[in-house]
Amino acid sequence: MKRLLANVALICFFVSFGVQAATETAKNYQMGAGDTIRITVFGEEDLSLETTLGENGTVSYPYLGLLQATGVSVADFEKEIADGLRGDYLINPSVHVDIIEYRAFYIYGEVKSPGGYPYQPNLTVERAVALAGGFTQRASKEKFELSRKVDGVGQKSTVKLEDEVKPGDSIFVKDSFF
């Protein structure tokens, strides 16, 4: 019985650590065009909304007007809304922002079902290939090119199966010569 309780306690510890790590990752996530977000203000139904960020990356928010969300972390966006509502509108607002659906990443080349797919946290090139139905017979299992915009500038790099994919990335799976 003691051993069972010790194992349960150990499992609970690791699960809570994983949840905390996932929460930290979500709070640091930089929002961008195509993300669907939900803003919730505790106890204020009229101030809660769900929206998809358009190309301009702004959110029209009650009382505060247009707020820039693209390139802003979830945590900073929560703080901006709370600070804007504090004082004139609410005494101590509790604001929470959730990413309902991440913007897409794209995969093409030698995969069975090329196209755009919704991003998932902790996505790797290998998992992206799996989402696209796997490799074709002609695919290189070692040659992948990743295109990513950094500060508005497109960059290309060669990546491996275990490398991370981010929302908005494009992955090109090259063909093998042998």
From TrEMBL:
Top-level division of the source organism's lineage: Bacteria
Pfam assignment, any one: Poly_export
Protein name per Swiss-Prot or TrEMBL: Polysaccharide biosynthesis/export family protein
Species the sequence originates in: Corallincola platygyrae
Residues covered by the Soluble ligand binding domain: 105-154
Domain called Polysaccharide export protein N-terminal: residue spans: 25-99
Stretch forming the signal peptide: 1-21
Keywords: Signal
InterPro entries: Poly_export, Poly_export_N, Soluble_ligand-bd
